[in-house]
C-alpha cells in the first residue's frame, strides 16, 4: 500500500503568498487544501482541495480542517495567511468602530487561535516524522506603530504573542510555531512582499528538525535575519 502524501492546509489563499506556498508544497509532493472566500469547491482536483471559507466566522476554520481531513488526511503543515484591517485617520485611531474592530480581531486573532487549536489536535495524531508546523503570516505591526492600522496592529500583536507562547509550550512535543515577517535588508517593513520568498521560507521552516526563532523576520534571498526590535512609529 502506497504511503499517503503529506498535507498542507493554507488558510487564506490569495494570489501572492497563498498561491506561492501552494505551488511550492505541491511541487514537493504535498496534497494542498486551500481555504478562502473566493474559491470554488468545484474547481478542486485530486491534488488540491478548494474550500470556500469566511474567516470572520470561526466555524469556517473548523469546517476547513474537517473537509481537508476527510478528503486528504490530517494536515501536517498549517499556514494562517489571513489578515484584516479597517483604516482610521492617522490622528484619530479611536474613530475605529467597535464593530470593525471586532470583525478584524476575529480574523486576525480568534480564527487563528481556532486554527492553531485544530492544528495541534491533528499534530497529536501524526507520527514524529511529520512536519507538524503552524505558520502565521505576520508583519511588523507587533513591534511598531503604523498610523491608520490600529485594528491590524492589535491583531498582529495578539497573534504574535499566541505564536510565541505556542512555540515555547509545544517544543517538547516537537511541534513548531512561527510568526513570519518579511523585511527590507535594513530591517524596515517591506510593503510589496514577495510570495515566493515566503513560500521558500515556509518550506524550510516546516522541514527543519527543531523549533527555530518563533519570530521569523526574514529578507528575500537571505532568509532569517534577526533585527533589533523597533517599537516605534513608522509615520
From TrEMBL:
Alphabetic keyword roster: Oxidoreductase
Pfam families listed in its UniProt record: adh_short
GO molecular function, one term: oxidoreductase activity
Keyword check for Electron transport: no
Record's keyword annotation contains Cell cycle: no
Family: Belongs to the short-chain dehydrogenases/reductases (SDR) family.
Protein name in UniProt: Short chain type dehydrogenase
Species for this entry: Lipomyces tetrasporus
Taxonomic path: Eukaryota, Fungi, Dikarya, Ascomycota, Saccharomycotina
Amino acid at each position: 500500500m502506497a504511503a499517503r502524501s503529506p498535507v498542507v492546509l493554507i488558510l487564506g489563499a490569495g494570489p501572492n503568498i497563498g498561491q506561492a506556498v501552494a505551488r511550492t508544497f505541491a511541487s514537493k509532493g504535498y496534497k494542498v487544501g486551500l481555504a478562502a472566500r473566493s474559491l470554488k469547491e468545484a474547481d478542486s482536483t485530486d491534488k488540491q482541495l478548494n474550500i470556500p471559507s469566511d474567516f470572520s466566522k470561526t466555524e469556517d476554520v473548523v469546517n476547513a480542517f474537517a473537509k481537508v481531513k476527510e478528503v486528504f488526511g490530517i494536515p501536517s503543515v498549517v499556514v494562517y495567511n489571513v489578515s484584516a484591517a479597517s483604516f482610521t485617520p492617522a490622528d484619530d485611531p479611536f474613530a475605529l468602530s467597535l464593530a470593525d474592530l471586532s470583525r478584524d480581531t476575529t480574523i486576525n486573532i480568534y480564527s487563528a487561535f481556532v486554527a492553531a487549536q485544530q492544528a495541534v489536535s491533528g499534530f497529536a495524531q501524526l507520527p514524529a516524522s511529520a512536519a507538524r508546523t503552524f505558520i502565521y503570516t505576520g508583519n511588523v505591526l507587533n513591534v511598531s506603530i503604523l498610523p491608520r492600522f490600529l485594528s491590524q496592529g492589535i491583531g498582529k500583536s495578539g497573534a504574535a504573542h499566541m505564536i510565541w507562547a505556542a512555540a515555547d509550550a509545544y517544543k517538547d512535543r516537537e511541534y513548531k510555531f512561527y510568526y513570519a515577517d518579511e523585511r527590507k535588508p535594513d530591517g524596515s517593513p517591506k510593503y510589496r512582499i514577495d510570495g515566493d520568498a515566503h513560500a521558500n521560507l515556509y518550506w524550510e521552516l516546516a522541514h527543519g528538525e527543531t523549533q527555530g526563532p518563533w519570530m521569523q523576520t526574514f529578507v528575500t534571498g537571505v532568509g532569517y535575519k534577526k533585527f533589533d526590535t523597533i517599537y516605534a512609529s513608522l509615520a
